[in-house]
Amino acid sequence: MSTAELASSYAALILADDGAEITADKLQTLIKAAKVEDIEPIWTSLFAKALEGKDVKELLLNVGSGGGAAPAAGGAAAGGAADAGAAPAEEEKEEEKEESDDDMGFGLFD
């Protein structure tokens, strides 16, 4: 990651932590106050546009949570017993695939 990207990222995090709106001017002001030189204004404009209308703290809290987990959990709760019978069948199919790979002699360390 370049110095311009890091400086813009840190400045955006500082503004988000302060609860201030993230704008290119504010990012540039923070970067200059930190005495980081040679940052082109395009970087601050890009970061400001990318983060416009987004809650940066919420983005950081949900970094590791993939989008597919919530719908699957919601479907299982709504489906009840009907989904409970389908899950073991899928697991058995996956196990069969793994066993067939071993039968062919392909392995991770072969």
Short description:
With 110 residues, the chain is an all-alpha fold. The chain has 6 helices and no strands.
How would you describe the overall organization of this protein?
The chain has helices at 3-18, 24-33, 41-50, 56-61, 69-79, 81-103. By secondary structure, it is mostly helical. The chain has a domain at 3-61: Orthogonal Bundle (Arc Repressor Mutant, subunit A), CATH 1.10.10.1410. Helix 2 packs across helix 3. The radius of gyration is 24 Å and the shape is elongated. It starts with a helix and ends in a 7-residue tail after the last helix.
Q: Cα distance, first to last residue? A: 36 Å
State the CATH architecture of the domain at 3-61. Orthogonal Bundle
Give the overall form: elongated
Main pleated sheet = none
Spans of at least 5 consecutive residues with low confidence: none
CATH C-level label of the domain at 3-61: Mainly Alpha
Output the number of helix runs. 6
- The chain-level mean pLDDT equals 74
Q: Tell me the radius of gyration.
A: 24 Å
User: In total, how many beta strands?
Assistant: 0
Beta strand %: under 5%
**Residues in helix, %:** 55-70%
The secondary structure category is mainly alpha
CATH topology of the domain at 3-61: Arc Repressor Mutant, subunit A
Order of helices and strands: HHHHHH
Subunit structure: P1 and P2 exist as dimers at the large ribosomal subunit.
GO biological process, one term: translational elongation
GO molecular function, one term: protein kinase activator activity
Pfam family, one: Ribosomal_60s
